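Hey L., structure's done. Input below.
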Amino acid sequence: MLKLKTGASYAIGFSIPFLFVFLTFIIYPLLISLELLATNTEYYSMLFSDKLYNQALINTAIFIGVGVPIKLTLALLLSGFLTYYSKIKIVKVLNVLYLLPWAIPAISAALSFRWTLNYDYGILNMFLADMGFNRVRWLLDYPTAMMSVIVFHIWKWLPMWTMLLLAGRKGIPEELYESASIDGASVFQRFTGITAPLLSKLFFICLLLSSIWSMGEFEAVWLVTMAGPNQSTHIITTLGYKFTFFDVNIVKGLAAYMSLLPAVLILVFVLIRLTRETK
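Output:
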């Protein structure tokens, strides 16, 4: 009992610095911001009348609504490939190589991606020109620029979600697949009858977590397109940064960030309920 109390005292003592930083630099500014914006609703009316904000809100919905499902679906397929063909030598090498995009620093990866898509000097357009095709305005037109942001985001974060789903697949007893194979079940039947039911909760947890984290994405837009062309690819995080540091309008920047808070809270609430059900 004495050892337990001593261990708890050490845990509390080591947690105090973290709690102090968390309360001082996260919770306190958040509460002050909420109080400021709750008592001054005109900031939100000013924000919602801003065309740039409305475009950023649409872009955020596209970014999350397109990027997250594609990313998680590809992660599910890739984890299945790495599991099903795990005994092949080249797949054993791929088990290491697929993590490289996640391991590369975001700044260098985004800038390399940006230069790859450069209209005049990018290697992709140079390859197209050498093949006799017209150069593509990857970062100079809104549709292709928005697509480039989503592609970079998927490429950068696909390995992490693949690793999580791969770990989930490893937790499924091999005997279930062996029994299904003996009964003559195909690969698709084994997936729908065994993998999908046992992996569904983990998949939805990853989907919710990815949606929450994607709302805070910054470098995919700022480093790849710089919110161009003509500030058309802003999402809420980059727009809040612009309002705060370029327009020197801190309150408007806070209002932009806080406008995402209801969506984040809903997703967090659903995530908590889902994780409780998995216990």
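The CA atoms of residues 181 and 187 lie 9 Å apart. The radius of gyration is 23 Å.

-- N.
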